[in-house]
């Protein structure tokens, strides 16, 4: 259970560190426009006091978020109903700490997102392939990002694959194979962060190469449609994204 007091403390801290205190409302919500942060008092007036489950808090905060956006523009949500035109597709990890829109400060409609354990893609994974096909053939997105991150649990699992079974074991097998192929190099590093980071980078490069060699990508390029596959690493400890300079284009 999450107490309203604890929740408000988090909001207050986030407001302080954002450098914004009840920021003025903007006419349009664009990237360079200061976002409005409700004060703890405003939130407390909306959400009843007491203990709440996270699901209850999400439902209540969704109402605040909706009303907040409508206060900027009464047509804010209606503007999304005419279709989407994202500027990039993000294939990232399902880890709850690495939401692409949050860490990139982007708005709805800017990033087409697909997430799974350890940001992986395989040629027999119909889920990821369907996302990529829609990205390329329908949305005509030219930039696809494969984003790994530090402290990735999926990467750790791949280095200890014998401990896992079922769908997870099958899913991480390509990464486990990658680890075995580079084991001497990786195991020469310090356990923990350095090994996780090293294998995480290799895995991003592996997926960049897989996506870059898909027939749908080759076909698009042959037809004159630019498709660039980028490899990034999000550093959880700093909040910064590292371009691994492994772009396939």
TrEMBL record:
Q: How are cofactors bound according to the entry's free-text note?
A: Binds 1 zinc ion per subunit.
- Would you say which domain of life the source belongs to? Eukaryota
Q: What class of enzyme is it?
A: lyase
EC number of this enzyme: 4.2.1.1
Residues reported to bind Zn(2+): 93, 95, 149, 152
Q: Name one GO molecular function term.
A: zinc ion binding
CC cofactor:
Zn(2+)
* Signal sequence residues: 1-22
Q: Which reaction does it catalyse?
A: hydrogencarbonate + H(+) = CO2 + H2O
Q: Which UniProt keywords apply?
A: Lyase, Metal-binding, Signal, Zinc
Q: Which family does it belong to?
A: Belongs to the beta-class carbonic anhydrase family.
Q: Mind telling me which PANTHER family this protein's record contains? A: CARBONIC ANHYDRASE
Physiological role: Reversible hydration of carbon dioxide.
Q: What is this protein called?
A: Carbonic anhydrase
What species was this sequence derived from? Furculomyces boomerangus
Please spell out the taxonomic lineage of the organism that makes this protein: Eukaryota, Fungi, Fungi incertae sedis, Zoopagomycota, Kickxellomycotina
């Amino acid at each position: 259970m999450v107490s309203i007091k604890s929740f408000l403390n988090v909001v207050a801290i986030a407001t302080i560190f954002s450098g914004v205190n009840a920021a003025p409302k903007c006419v349009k919500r664009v990237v360079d426009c200061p976002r409005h942060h409700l004060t703890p008092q405003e939130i407390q007036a909306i959400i009843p006091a007491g203990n709440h489950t996270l699901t209850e808090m999400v439902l209540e905060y969704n109402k605040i978020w909706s009303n907040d956006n409508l206060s900027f523009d009464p047509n804010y949500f209606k503007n999304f109903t005419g279709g989407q035109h994202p500027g990039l597709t993000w294939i990232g990890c399902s880890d709850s700490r690495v939401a692409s829109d949050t860490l990139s400060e982007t708005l709805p409609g800017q990033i087409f997102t697909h997430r799974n354990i350890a940001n992986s893609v395989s040629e027999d994974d119909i889920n990821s392939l369907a996302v990529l096909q829609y990205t390329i053939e329908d949305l005509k997105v030219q930039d696809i990002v494969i984003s790994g991150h530090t402290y990735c649990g999926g990467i750790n699992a791949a280095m200890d694959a014998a401990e896992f079974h079922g769908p997870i074991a099958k899913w991480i097998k390509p990464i486990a194979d990658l680890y075995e192929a580079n084991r001497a190099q990786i195991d020469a590093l310090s356990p923990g962060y350095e090994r996780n980071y090293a294998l995480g980078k290799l895995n991003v490069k592996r997926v960049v190469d897989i996506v870059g060699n898909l027939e749908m990508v080759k076909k698009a390029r042959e037809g004159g449609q630019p498709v660039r596959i980028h490899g990034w690493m999000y550093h959880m400890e700093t909040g910064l994204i590292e371009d691994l300079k492994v772009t396939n284009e």
